[in-house]
Every structure is written in C-alpha cells, then in structure tokens.
Amino acid sequence: MVLGMPRWQRAILMAGFLVVFAGTTFFAYLYLHFSRLIDERMGGEVFNHASMVFSAPTPVSVGQPWTPERVASRLRKALYSEGEGAAGFGSYRVRGDRLEIRPGPASFFEGGPMREGPAALEFHEGKLASISSLEGGSSLEGYWLEPEVITTLFDQSRAKRRLVRYDDLPRDCVDAVLAAEDHRFFSHHGVSLYRILGAAVADIRADERAQGGSTLTMQLARTFFLSRRKTLSRKLEEIFLALLMEQRLSKRQIFELYANQTYLGQRGSFSVYGFGEAADAYFNKDVKSLTLPEAALLAALIRGPNLYSPYKNPKRAIERRNWVLHRMSEDGLVSAADAERASEAPLQLAQQNLEGSQAPFFVDMVRDQLLAQFPERDLVSHSFRIYTTLDLDLQRAASDAVRAGMTEVDRELAKKKRPKGAPPSEPNQPQVALVTLDPHTGELKAFVGGRDYGVSQLDHVLARRPPGSSFKPFVYAAALNSGVDGSQPVITPATILMDEPTTFTYEGGTYDPGNYKQEYHGAVTVREALNQSLNVATVRLAEMVGYDRIRKLAIEAGMNKDLLATPALALGAYVATPLEIAGAYTVFANDGQYVGPRFILAVNDTSGRNLLESSETRRQVLDSRVSYLMVNLMESVINNGTAAGVRSRGFTLPAAGKTGTSHDGWFAGFTSNLLAVVWVGYDDDRDLRLTGGASALPVWTEFMKRATQIPAYQKVEDFTPPPGVVTVELPASPGVPGEAPRQEVFIEGTEPRSPTVLEGVSHGISGLFRKIFGGSSPPPGTASPASAPATRPGGASQPSPARPGDTTNNNPPESRPQKKGGALKKIFSIFKGRPKPAPPAPEKQ
C-alpha cells in the first residue's frame, strides 16, 4: 500500500515518522537525563552539600542567670529538636521550670574528648537552680551545651539553613505560603496553565498584584536543579522537571523541600534559606512557634526578601504581609476576623544581627586554614563538621563594642583640625580589629576583622602594623628577668631611670626618640616610666638590658622574626599583627607561659570520625614571678596611667593592659579570664592623630563591659602573686611635701635591705631632686637600697649589636601630659654593692 502511494505522500509519511522518532528519542533522553538529575540530587542527605561550622560549646553552671527559654533557644541553634527522641544532634523538652537535654548520635559530645550525657536543668527565679544527670540522677555543678551552627562552607554562597520537616511547619505557615505563591498547589500536577495565562495577562496589563506564572513546584525545580539564567530553554526544562517531580515525589515531600530551599533574605553576610532559619533570624523562634502574622510575613518575603525586608522597609513589609493575610482570607484559609487582627499586629522582630555578629572574618580564616589542611575537592564533596573555639555571646559583644567604640572615635576625629595639605575631605573611615583569647588555653573567642565585611573583606586582625607602645611590656619584662637569671644590672619596678632628651648610638647609627609633647620628667622609677609610657626612659632601659634579649623574648612569645635589635624595637617600630600581640600577651596573663592562639577544635565527618584535632602550643617564656611583676605594673597603667580611661568609662573589675600609638592606636589588656587586643587605624597608613588611649581603648572598654555581663565571664578574679614575690613598703621621700609611703612588689631576694642610715640619706637626696627638678628619683644607675638593689657602676650594660642607619624615631611618642622635670645625666655617685641572689623559682602548685 505504501508502495502504491505517490512519492510526495511517502515523503510526508517518512518525515512524520522521523519527527515522531526524534521526538520520542528526545523525550526519552530528557526523561532519563532529568530522572538521573533528580536521583543524584535527592540521593542521601539532600541539603548536606556543605560543611557546617560550629561555635564552641557553651558552659552553664548552677547559680548563673539562665531561663528555660534561653537554653532552649541555644539548643535549637545547635540543631536540637523539641520532643522525646534523641536522633540527630539531640533533643530537648521543656516542662515548666525543668528542661531535659538528650544529646544524639551526631552530637559534638558523642565520642569526642568532651562527654556530656542526658541531663535535667531546673530553674528558679531567672537562675539555673540545679543540674542532674538523667542516667544516674547525680547532681552536677556545670554542664556544656551543644555548639551552635555559625554557617556552612564550600557551597555556592555563604548560606545558613535550619532543616525542618513538613510536620514541623505550623498550619498557618503552610497556608500563608500557598496563599502567597500557589493556592492550587495540592490540586495541580506541577504546571498550571491557569497561572501561566494569568501571568501573561498580568504582564500585558502591568498588574503587579497578580501572582507569577511559576507554580511552587516549578520554583523548586528552578532553584533546586537549574541555573538562574532566563531563557526559553531553561523555562522548558523547568516545566519538564516540575512534571517529573510530581510523578516521583509526593506533595508533602515537594513542599518540605521548598520550605528548606527558599531564599528569605540576609543575616549579616550570610544568606538565609528556609523557614526554619528564617524563623530564628527574624523572630528568634522555632518554626513551630510562629504566629499567624509572623508566618504571613515570612511568606511575604518569598517574592522579594530584600525588597520587603522588615528591617530596611518596615512599611512595605507590613503592606506585603497584610496582602498575604487578605489572600488567606479570600481562599478560606483563615477567618476574616483572624486576618484583620493579624493585619493590625506590629512587627515584633528579633534584634537585627548586623555585620560582624556572625564573624564573617573568622569564617574566612577558618576556610583558609581548612584549605591548607584538606584538598578543596574533599571539602566540596564531603560534609564535614568543623568545631571552632568561637563564643557567639562574646562575638556579639565584640561586634556591639566595635560599633559603640568606633562611634566615639569618629566623633573625636571630627573635632580634629585637618592637617595642612590634607584633602578637604577624608572619605575613608578608620578601620578596626578586635581579637579575644582565653589567656589560659589560647582559644580564640571573638574576632572582628573590620568595621563592615560588606564594604571591605580585608582582615585587620591578620594585618601587620607597628604596635607602638603596646610592645613596651616586653622591654620591661626582659629587664625584670634580671631578678631571676643573674644578669646585671638587676632591675626592679623601683629602679631609677633618667627621662631627658637623649641621642642613642648603635653601630654608627643614631636614634632620637621623643616623649609625648616633648615633655620630660627627669628621674623616674621603672613603674612610673611604664605607667606614663615614657619613650626616652624606655629606650634607656632597653639599652641597659640589651636589644637582642628583648628581641629574643618577643620571638619566644610568638611574634614574627622580622624584629630588629635596634633602639626603635623598644618603642614598637617593627610590625606585628593584632593576633600576634594577643598571643604574646598570654605570657603575662598566664603565669609566664605562652599559649599559641588556636581557633579550630576538631574536624569530623558525618559519621563522627575525627579527621583533624588541634593541639595546644605551650612553652614557658617568663618566670611566673616576672610575669606577676609585669601584671602588677600594667594594673597601674589602667588604674592611674595612660589607660586610666578604662576606669573613667566605668569598667571597675581587676584588669591590666597597655596602650600603644604609632600611626595607629592600640590597646592590649586582660582580666583573669579574657585577653583582648584592639587596633584602630587607616588602611592607607595615614596618621590616625589619636593616641591608643583615645582610639583603641574605648573599643576595648566597651567590649569588656559587655563581656563581663555574660554568665561564663562574670567571675573576674584578682591577680594573685605566686610564691617568691614580696611586697615592701618604701618610705616617703623627706624632700617631697605630702608624699606618703608607697608599696612596691619585688622578686624575693631583690627587695630593699633593712632600713639604714644610708637609706635615709639616699631618700633625702632623692626627695631633693624631686622637689627641684620635678623628677621622681635619682638618675639612672643610682639605685639606692631603699628603692632597688644596688647596681654595678655605670648602671647599664653595653647595647647589643644593631643595624646602623636607624636614625629616625619610627614610633610617635606616647604618654599622658605631665609636669616638666629637670634633666641631669649624673648628679651623684652610684651606691655600690651586689644584690642578694634571688631564690630558685618555686614549683607551681
């Protein structure tokens, strides 16, 4: 029959057959291709495509101010679920004033070095009243809460997602999404011709109130499987995928995927995906606890999270929310009365997490460290759990302190007159860095690398700048070390230095440091020199000690080896990072022991197998007695020296620290349980024209005031001397009216001998010089028995070899303005005698 057909009919039939065959083949190819795509994407843990970064676990103790709601909020952020089971990371259950916690198999505490079992927490009048084990019933004094999720890494964006099941979603939340995006979702088969035609008509009429043409399933297909390019071919792929998904998945599965995949705005520098994360980000709630107006607001954000952001555009957000409520009422999903009441509800949002609150600079540092430890292909293809040392409470305190402190800095700079030749405006704001450590473990607890991560991703915590006078404690520590290592001259806090204009020579070069406002004080003690940050007296002390010894101490304390053994070293003229300074200061805050900063505790895979575990770096750098003397000196700096602004700004707890000024401002200080370093300066190295006390100190103080309100850091203890340190009362100088006896600390064996006639004579001379010249004590090299051990004639050791050519003062002087004093080099002879040797360092108890 076919053979009898005309040729043209046979040609048409053959063409038709080829078209059908090609279409069938193409359809089969698409079916197999997209089926394989769905299988690959849906296989295993659907959303577990990136590594999760966790904070440090949170300690809670009996007597601390906690409530069941606060603890439950922490556990939700640690991916615990509310209920009876202990699957996944764990679960919790609240019953009035009792909260039960059950860590799950994915818990940080499962199989790790820290172990926490199921426990019950009882609360009373806003405090944690008791903790007991659910397994044995024994009472516990403290408990660790699961680490919270900070962010995910190695996906296409900096994403935050908190997975929810369909059954976790309240009915109002489901209905709000249906009303806003696809009210026929449960009745169509993935593609709605009605919606596509309606969208086309709306485009012609420019009716912005109409819904888009994509169904909820098509939206999921687009975001879950396809790129964001807008082409006809991608639209056809989207339709085909939606039809296929409807065949392969149930409606509840599709909606659950949609609820976890939908983009709902920004939280700091991170993208918020899904209703579980959005409930926490906008309302600080579990998704199950959402009210009708809250659910409607989240549904309203789907159309444009930034356009309808309740933080940026509250009026527009309310209008869009009320539109969703109106649609819910029209579709019969809520009553008109309920919709009306919900429309009148105000926006009750959680405090916005501004830039820095979730530590984007810290996350970048973690990522860089992981890329140095693992191949990138492993980090992209595997789902690691990265446990860090970050304390999110301290991180929030640091971010708030940076904003408050830098507002004061901006205000102070606005008062300054513009330098000659400077441009009419200086558009760039000064930058800031704040890093906080536990001084006893080296764990990094808070990290702010700049003012706004969105503006600049340069991490200033890792940027090298001259630390200025914040380096001086290492000069004084090297000097006081003479009290235990037998070197000469023996230096104590009461040793006399001369503060007057001086040119220092070294290997053919000269160095001319100057004091703040060129004010000099004559004869001063070591304590007074550090207290007032006197540059000339400090360089004179460095010359006595030897620049090489100072450099060696700084390097042993973790600073870089680029330091040069020159007079400029004493004034912090060579570069270091704020993180290096923070690590170095642990030798003062940790009984002379250096503890290297660390920020990753462990890296585990999804099975809990440990892939990386960091270890502490510890070494004894200073004798604990020398360390305590330095702490005592730096307490004076805060109480009545260049850092007295700490006290005037209302921070009264025991603390020690040192200001620093180069072109930038620095402050490094610590309490018994926290060490923090702050840097403030311009990226282009312009002179900040503010001292460290007027720039970095306000930020540090704001941070410490906030940090010590956090339960885990409220207990700040006094600094206590170790065995081998004695306190001696030094008599008042007879020549200075109104001066009272003062107490000074010494390493045992270097303290003054019993009072003698010689002491009275020396104090009389000392008092005379104070009265006449405004100084505090005799010139350098004159160490009377009443003020310090006798030194050898000359009172100074030969300076260590240094590189020539360093003839400029690379470090602007810093000190509080003081009364001018005289400047005499050698007035009277040196009291001779050898000090009593210091006893060996006692064993630590």
Main β-sheet description: 6 strands, mixed
Which sequence of strands runs across the widest sheet? 3-4-5-6-7-8
Shape: elongated
Strand % is 15-25%
The SS-based structural class is alpha+beta
Summed up, the helix count is 25
Q: What integer value in Å does the Rg equal? A: 34 Å
List unreliable stretches of 5+ residues. 203-211, 755-845
Gap from first CA to last CA = 109 Å
Give the helix/strand layout.
Blueprint (H helix, E strand, L loop, with lengths): L6 H36 L8 E4 L3 E4 L6 H10 L3 E2 L7 E6 L2 E6 L15 E6 L2 E7 L5 E2 L1 E4 L3 E5 L5 E3 L9 H11 L11 H13 L10 H10 L6 H17 L2 H11 L1 E5 L2 E4 H10 L8 H10 L12 H17 L5 H8 L16 H14 L2 H6 L3 E4 L3 H24 L15 E7 L6 E5 L23 H9 L1 H4 L10 E4 L4 E3 L2 E3 L10 E4 H6 L3 H11 L1 H10 L21 H7 L1 H4 L3 E3 L4 E5 L5 E4 L4 E3 L3 H17 L4 H4 L7 E6 L3 E6 L4 E7 L14 H12 L17 E6 L11 E6 L9 H17 L72
Parallel strand pairs: 1-14, 3-4, 11-13
Antiparallel strand pairs: 1-10, 2-9, 4-5, 5-6, 6-7, 7-8, 12-13, 14-22, 15-16, 15-27, 17-20, 18-19, 21-24, 22-23, 25-26, 26-27, 28-29
Helix pairs in contact: 1-6, 3-9, 3-10, 5-6, 5-7, 9-10, 10-11, 14-24, 15-18, 15-19, 15-22
